[in-house]
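ok so i was messing around last nite and threw this chain in just to see what happens. nothing serious, just curious
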Amino acid sequence: MVVTEYLERNAKLYGDEVALIELNPEDQDTRRITWKESELIESSRFQPYRREITWSVFEEKANRAANMLLGRGIKKGDKVAIIMYNCLEWLPIYFGILKTGAIAVPFNFRYDADEILYCAELAEVDVIVFGPEFIGRIETNAERLGKGRLLIYVGDNCPSFAESYRELVADCSSQAPGIMLTEDDFGAIYFSSGTTGFPKAILHKHRSLTQAAEMEQKHHETGREDTFLCIPPLYHTGAKFHWMGSLVAGSKAVLLKGAKPETILKAVSDEQCTIVWLLVPWAQDILDAFDRGDFKITDFKLDQWRLMHIGAQPVPPSLIKRWKEYFPHHQYDTNYGLSESTGPGCVHLGMENIHKVGAIGVPGYRWETKIIDEQGNVVPQGEVGELCVKGPGVMTCYYRNEEATAETIKDGWLLTGDMAMQDPDGFIYLVDRKKDVIVSGGENIYPVQIEDFLRKMDKIKDVAVIGLPDRRLGEKTAAVIEIKEGFTCTKEEVEEFCQALPRYKRPKEIIFSDIPRNATGKIEKPKLRKMYGADRLVAQETSEA
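result:
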């Protein structure tokens, strides 16, 4: 079964029920309008606060998008890119692409003009569908992007170098195009984070998409009465495939623009959301706002909220301990994954295992795991090695990159690049990224362990531990620390707090600064190493000279 069949089923069984809601709290106009009404609004500056579509309208819009693309010559195996912010149009366009048999290629909305061009050429994209926020970035390379490609604009006031999506679909049939799809057909290309250079293109078959959707529904027991709140960007595998649990269940979901604590809580309250996926910074911000007394839990209707889950990065156990103090009845889950494994869930904690907070969990639905050494041998339980996963969600390849594919997939096993260990109960703990391990004086130091320790300090909001060049040790540990709003902290206080750590784990340098995170909440450690590493090595060499 392919995921488009779930949409078709929902349109038949639950056609008049709401499928998707878009909330844009930035807009002060609180009118509630349907998709059809929103299409009649001509002002590009007007963004209605709340829009919604039913399952039947969702299916009709996807079919119109598919028939439009087919009418423009798009065929099975072609690639169609999407670069838009979260909105009510995003998912119907994505499903329309899938319905043609073409390959959906979501672009990171943080890509600059050169990255957009690079990814379009790497993935051999035939069409780029883009929103109003990206006119400038597309226009910069419009001549090269438009050479042999369709540029389709979703919004008002279509630029001269593109075609209007609204006009193109206006006369297209709302009936399913009837393209036969199987789980062995190619379905999507996603991109790696690109933190060490330009991203790699990750090719998945429809089997991967179906696996992710069915696994999400199973892991979180998503039912017809649930309402899922989606905040992260839909281009990311995490957001989309967490939402697909709602697709499989045939239940409602809310796309929220904005991640301020009050914005999130108000959306949960107003829309009676039951499942919310948060990134670590958002959960921290909510707790900090409660601690400061910015508002009270009783200001919102939250009794129906049953599950909060986190993914995309290691989760400090101290954060969940604080969360349970405010929400003692919440179920909780941690989801581990990567785009090469179709996003989160190849390892997950499990809602019944909150006593194991700190672990990323056990193999997910239909997944296998192992932890290996440098020679590829399985390490003894309790020892650190590289985590490998195997299952129906493993990518086909890095598109047009055989060398990288061969390095990452061995005998069907995906080498994640994450260092991990397994406890006697079979739970896997993430130790660090293989490339983030600090080797200081011949000793392996795992930054996540130090970060978890430092987050226990009341004044610290966020922390990233990185390795900096050191003439004597090779690398030394440095803690980049972001202090909570309204607090002050000194290096001496941090150093005193770190006395409880073994000497070799104590940071040799303390840097107070904001912590940069990407759109999925991951700390951008390469950026920090670039900011602080080279300058300090030059300073050290100058001093020694």
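not much to say yet. The longest strand covers residues 460-470.
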